[in-house]
Amino acid sequence: MSLVPFNRNWLYEPWEDLDQFFHEWPKMKKADFIPAVNVYEKKDKVIVEAAITGIDPQKVDVSVEDNQLILKGQAQKESEVEEKDYYCHEVKSGSFYRAINLPARVKENQAQAEYQDGILKVEIPKEKEKEKKKVKVKIKPKKNNK
Fold it and tell me: Residue 25 — very low, low, confident or very high, per pLDDT cuts 50/70/90?
């Protein structure tokens, strides 16, 4: 199993990933942080796990559109510390946005999500691959009309 699926269209569309990045950049630029994710496939579904520890899952917007999983929301600070002399300040707060390209075609309207121990887990059933058919096309010789 490869971590990054091979894109057979890279010869025809070498800038597709770069276009996607610039398409999403304005939304990502407004976000205060981007949650880390794990994306993997099982036989009949795609699974995305996002680390959103400390965030109320009811304040997370999860949607699937054009074979992309979109995560966005707001992480609130529990309390404000008056003194700003932190030794270490790693807990994220503020808005977040993440668009994840899914590795297979999915049934977008059947996505399900659950939240446990700071991990948002989204499972989306895969679409069944259409059976490939090969149709032989007969070539007729062209008749010359003089």
Answer: low
Query: What global pTM score does this model have?
Result: 0.65
**Tell me, which fold does domain 33-125 have in CATH?**
Immunoglobulin-like (2.60.40)
- For residue 70, which of 85, 80, 83, 60 has the smallest C-alpha distance? 60
Three-class SS state of 62: strand
Q: Which two tokens stand for residue 92?
A: 């994220």
Residue that the structure tokens 């057979």 belong to: 8
Assess whether pLDDT exceeds 60 at residue 39.
Answer: yes
Residues β-bridged to residue 65: 68
Find residue 37's DSSP bridge partners. Answer: 50
Q: How far apart are CA 44 and CA 106, in angstroms?
A: 9
pLDDT for residue 84 is more than 90: no
Under 8 Å between Cβ of 45 and 124: yes
